[in-house]
Amino acid sequence: MSVVKTLTAPLATAGRLFAFGTDVLIAVFRRPFQFREFVQQAWFIASITIIPIALVAIPFGAVVALQTGSLVQQFGAQSFVGSAAVLAVLREAAPIATALLVAGAGGSAIAADLGARKIREELDAMMVLGIDPIQRLVVPRVLACMLVAVFLNGLVSVVGVLGGYVFNVMLQGGTPGAYLASFTALAQTPDLYQGMAKALVFGLIAALVSTYMGMHADGGPQGVGQAVMESVVITFLLLFMANFVMSALYFQLVPAKAL
Prior knowledge:
This protein is mainly α.
């Protein structure tokens, strides 16, 4: 019996997480909307992630530019270095970097905050007073994570492209004109939309997992720490799965740009 319970535990957790996400979706349309809490959470998440993500975006753009530039040059297509780097940053690097920072910094902070409220029985007290914790606490944090993730994705995209430009010109002997002129050779507007959509979905996943784990923490301070750790690990796994699914759908629905 214990073996069966161990094997089915992940499925039960997935079911509860899906039910929790459904409750959050329903609570989004309830009134009153906690606008003040939403603004405070958006500012908090942005304040703890914007500097680390700006610093991470520079090496991300540099590595992408160096790798794609080296690969493209082996095929004798130096004129497409800029376009290849932009595609890699917009489609994959920027959303992934944004998701990791939002989940690692913002998500862990959210899980710790709600976990502390749970062990102090604040959530139970809110329910006794007739206040829905999901509407009051979870919905503003979920929407704030989604909003901040989209804006941070734009920041990473800009910084990553500029970093790729600098390193391509300085280390690979590329010309500024060729790098800039090749932007539109392979890249297209749906590539930008895909990156924004990924950031939005990744922010949603990070917020849902962190709020769920925080609201279900138990066992005192040790349980809160365990919930924070589990929220980060589960979020990373779900992010890479969602990234694969969204990339596969994108390549099926949007044809590659003809040269």
